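Prompt: May I have another protein with tokenized structure?
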Amino acid sequence: SCLSSQLEEERETSTGFTQVVRTNKMLQRQNKPAWKDVMVQEGVDDMTLLSKVTNEQIRDNMQERYNNNIIYTSISDVLISMNPYKQLPIYGPEIVQDYVGRSRIELPPHIFSIAEESFRTMFNEKENQCIIISGESGAGKTEAAKKIMFYIAEVTGGGEGSRLAHVKNIILETNPLLEAFGNAKTLRNNNSSRFGKYFELQFSKNGDPDGGVITNYLLEKSRVVFQIPGERNFHIFYQFCAGATQQEKQEYGIQGANGFAYLTYGNTLRVDGIDDVSDYKEVRNAMNVIGISADEQRNIFRLLAAIMWLGNLTFNERGEKSSIADKSVLDYVASLLSVPAGMMQTALETRKMETKHGNTGRGSSYSVPLNYVQACATRDALSKAVFSRLFDWLVQRLNQALVSRSPDLAIGVLDIYGFEVFEKNSFEQL
């Protein structure tokens, strides 16, 4: 299993030169004769070997390693990873090869050692494996899951054009797609997963990837209609606004993200280190690789546009009644959703009540007008429901693309999203 955590304490920032020297030393230390001596200077690899296991010694050991760009530490079979909030050159193909066929005690702790041990145990003992990744928001759980999938894709065979290569490509392309629709910028993390995911990688008896199954749960639907200051809605909305072609902008009425109420509650339209235009291209490419047709893609973005325009639908308040302020917005949303505008207006402005008399089952039906607060809540509920069902459909489409012909063995990766305390909490946090 893998535990991710953040280090909240202040640390001295090294110069760029010092960082490079330290990192290179970590990559090459298995070839150094004084490897054990170096490890003494940089803390203990496995904290079961600490002379005294106390909170202070654990903290000091991890602090020392973190300051030297060593983000992985073991506690026996458990791996602790600390988010460095920067790129480290410790994940390339050459590093992958160092861990192939090696025991976890032969090399420094690494997420690749967890992936290697799980894969080899599954293959040699013919038993399914599971990797649990847990931690607070911003700790690096999703990145750890991606590194595991990258490692398995690298160490398994398959030539170009084969089914195996196609399956591995789909597995890797699930990341940009699910991140676009399920991740968002939060106060603690620019790419925080706002849903839980269990990804089961399925293998043939020869150890080759043959497919997979994704199970999603606890999507944070409340983010679709509200964000606290400093946060954003899901990435896909901003990617769509920034990267849509001129034809798409005209077809779906897309303008800048600042033109949609649902995207501006957090007052954060752009994020450092995130290129929405480039990410939008990645999402479209992932859809093509997975096999989502052009018509299906058009419907996806039509629904996203409808959600954004729903947020611009406002109401006039008249006592205990409310009415839609701008009928042109209603008409446009109805056209995007392919529903009659009159029916949609009725659903947003009124609710139906039924009364029954005795055991006869007979009763009356009444149309009750909604007040301003109720109308806004109904609009937001519709937006959340559309996005949630779209997300579920995407996961279903991914599973169709990943369906296995003969799943003999499996490695499950459980990525639980980190909980946070919001000013306004909803049931999605429970």
